[in-house]
Amino acid sequence: MSRWVEIAADRARRGEDCVLVTVAAVRGSAPREAGARMVVTRERVAETIGGGNLELAAMERARQMLDGRPAPGARLVRYPLGPGFRQCCGGVVTLLFERVAAEEAWWLACLAELERAGRPGVVITGAEGGCGGRRLVVSATGCEGTLGEPALDEEALGLARQLLAGGRASAEPQLRAIGRPSSENLVLIELARPCDFDIVLFGAGHVGRAIVGVLADADCRVTWVDPRPAQFPREVPGNVRVVATAAPEEEVDRAPSGAFFLVMTHSHALDFELCERALKRGDFRYLGLIGSAPKRNRFLKYLKVEGVPEAALARLTCPIGVPGIVGKQPAAIAIAVAAELLQVRDAAAAAAPASARRAGARARLAAGRRRGGGYGEGRNAA
Fold first, then answer.
1. How far apart are CA 73 and CA 150, in angstroms?
2. pLDDT of the residue at 287
3. Which DSSP helix (H) or strand (E) runs through 269?
4. For the chain, what are the domain ranges?
5. Distance (Å, rounded) from C-alpha 382 to C-alpha 369?
6. In sequence order, what are the beta bridge partners of 19?
7. In CATH, which superfamily holds the domain spanning 198-343?
8. Which of 162, 279, 329, 366 is deepest in the core (most CB within 10 A)?
9. Which pTM was predicted?
10. Per-residue b/e over 263-275, b at no fewer than 16 CB within 10 Å?
11. Strand order of the sheet with strand 221-226?
12. What pLDDT band is residue 363 in, cutting at 50, 70 and 90?
């Protein structure tokens, strides 16, 4: 689940109001991208919109909203980040402030359910005008909420369906005027996608535990697998699911398509079996094996004997981690490995928009027809 959804929903379950601060639009250079969020309560702040004076000013305004100054609801505020604001980014950030009352947090439950089901949705939030503070949550199978007028709901629903058809190509949030030109209704439209950064980590040793710590606040889901239950700590981060099993190799088959596999168990024989199984499955995004170049060469030799094709063998990453970090301490390896995972994820995301645009165009065309008209060597030796 997206961390801000989880945090805001938890506040609502506790009966505590909060203010969501969302980067609604960015012009020029800014600390965070459109869609970044911060959750503010009277006592705590979770997540970030970039720090500095911008964040301090946003926290102050959010707490004023919690005290009823200005009136609770939704409010757009524009912040120039020039010399007057003492941030040298120089861009302009527009923030949307929304007070989320504990008894009106139904839409957070909708988003959480969509994410658990692995389905995308669109959140349309009234930012200004008569629809301010109202919401629609739209999925492929339904729509919850209202912007206050049937005509506004119908127009917003059409925009949401376009986003869902466009997929990743239309992922950036956008502010948009809807309704009659004189109505001054401004909405924030955002595609809420389920997390597709699935990491399956085999091994609960020192490096495995360090990697889990580094990934605790990342936007990912970690399945942590080891046949030794006692190796796992008593508490794990919220984005981690522990699997203590005598058959860890079966978790290779259970992983979703496009998963990131990290193999670092206590047994070279088990490492080999996991790598072979993943390579023969083939639909992963990343397969990393902890170890040195000699370990990689031995594994490749025997994997070839087991019938793994050359093209598949080339996809095995060993040693793991970004180049240039030579430390062998678990923390150093964990940082290097996490950086490599993010590089692979972001490279895949950058390559996706063109294929998503083509898929979206095909979907819209089909819909129209129905209507009649996509380390150095030895550093982590094992």
1. 21
2. 98
3. helix 268-281
4. 1-103, 105-194, 198-343
5. 58
6. 40, 99
7. NAD(P)-binding Rossmann-like Domain (3.40.50.720)
8. 279
9. 0.77
10. bbbeeeebbbbbb
11. 240-244, 221-226, 198-202, 260-263, 286-289, 316-317
12. very low
